[in-house]
């Protein structure tokens, strides 16, 4: 199955705990999805920007709650992204068996597109 739409995202930095290194940055994630997925999400991101311009890496987990194609429930997305001198690779995958409610058994991958400051998604998924 296929879902598409837009989303707004707010990222907020989290200060390192006492004694914790600032070599890895941490941020909270707050999203609002529109389109075929009408939902909110909250999560956390860990990131590191290297000394080379345009090179970085991040991982994140976010819990998405709302409706997908009219089916209500929640699920968790796992992100893994790297940038190598400006060239990026990103994987956003549904955590296995994280679906609840009418989204129980959900599996899939989400593609995030950022163009002109606008965030869109394409979500390829299966439901039992």
Mind explaining what this structure looks like?
It is a single chain. With 128 residues, the chain is mainly β. It has a single domain, classed as Beta Barrel (AOC barrel-like), CATH 2.40.350.10. It is built from no helices and eight strands. The protein has strands at residues 2-14, 25-35, 37-49, 56-68, 71-84, 87-94, 107-115, 118-126. It has an eight-stranded antiparallel β-barrel with strand order 1-2-3-4-5-6-7-8. A hairpin with a 2-residue loop joins strand 7 and strand 8. The protein is globular, with a radius of gyration of 15 Å. The mean pLDDT is 94.
Mean pLDDT: 94
The first-level CATH class is given as Mainly Beta
Largest sheet: 8 strands, antiparallel, barrel
- Shape-level CATH architecture: Beta Barrel
Blueprint (SSEs and pairs):
Elements: E1 2-14, E2 25-35, E3 37-49, E4 56-68, E5 71-84, E6 87-94, E7 107-115, E8 118-126
Antiparallel strand pairs: 1-2, 1-8, 2-3, 3-4, 4-5, 5-6, 6-7, 7-8
Brief summary of the model shown:
The protein is mostly beta strands and 128 residues long. It contains no helices and eight strands. It has strands at 2-14, 25-35, 37-49, 56-68, 71-84, 87-94, 107-115, 118-126.
Notable characteristics:
128 residues, AOC barrel-like, 8 strands, 70% strand
